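[09:14] KT: can someone run the structure on this one? pasting the chain below
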Amino acid sequence: MRIRTLILALVTTACASAPRAGEPPTDGAAAEAAIQAQLSSMLTAWNADNLDAHIAPYADDATWTSATGLLRGKPVIRETLVKGFQRGTDLVGRLKFDPSVFTRLGPDYMMTNGGFHLDSLPSGRTIDGQSTLIWRRSGGKWEIIHDHSS
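[09:31] RB: done, structure tokens below
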């Protein structure tokens, strides 16, 4: 009986982690590299005053837990960033990210945790915080489906 249970557990695990038909396997290193490239692009975009490129990795139905509550949808996330951080066409501050810690949540899901720092603000203050992002692989690319930054 124990051997049957062990075999069933092994088969179930193998099936759950197998790629879907027609999709390439997602090894951890490749997933981390793809997500790190997205994070680097986000950072570069912010510091180049390009909000749309900064939020490009967010899924259209992404959610964001902020100090004011749960935001739903990329347009709402964008508008919140415009209100809080955009002056004219410029984004305020210079953004920096700490190295991210990656946690695999499944074959198509990843979580990143890391610090962020926004300095050179007009007020002279600095915003330091932590961010947890949940990423989903969809159509061969990784996108943010949830952001909890504080």
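[09:33] KT: thanks! The first strand starts at residue 58 and ends at 66.
[09:34] RB: yep, looked fine to me
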